[in-house]
Specification:
The chain is mainly beta. The protein has a domain of 67 residues: SH3 type barrels. Helices cover 0% and strands 46% of the residues. It has a six-stranded antiparallel sheet, with no helix packed on it. A two-stranded antiparallel sheet has the order 4-5. It has a two-stranded antiparallel sheet with strand order 9-10. The model has no long low-confidence stretch (mean pLDDT 93).
């Protein structure tokens, strides 16, 4: 079970986009994630008429390391650490360490 999943809102805590918030689009295997609208780079793309790709300069999101993001806690309004606990009914859920609020209902 991962601490950060697709669809979670995260806060960037390091790098050029420090302090920005965004939604996780993808979680990659090598401890990296892609966050919507964060870590944007300009890529020079060659046209490929066979695939219908036009050339030019495009902007795209690049992956961030998991260590550079924290899960956003709406109750406190900032990033928070995440832990795991097992409920009485046997389910394993994530919770915020600061206020013990359960994420997965």
């Amino acid at each position: 079970m991962n601490r950060i999943r697709k669809g979670d809102e995260v806060v960037i805590i390091a790098g050029k986009d420090k302090g920005r918030r965004g939604t996780v689009q993808r979680v990659l295997k090598d401890d990296k994630i892609v966050v919507q609208g964060v870590n944007m780079v300009k890529k020079h793309q060659k046209p490929n008429p066979a695939q219908g790709v036009s050339g030019g300069i495009i902007e795209k999101e690049m992956p961030l390391n998991l260590s550079n993001v924290m899960l956003y806690n709406p109750a406190t309004g900032k990033g928070d650490r995440v832990g795991f606990k097992i409920l009485e009914d046997g389910r394993k859920v994530r919770y915020f360490k600061s206020n013990e609020e359960v994420l997965d209902a």
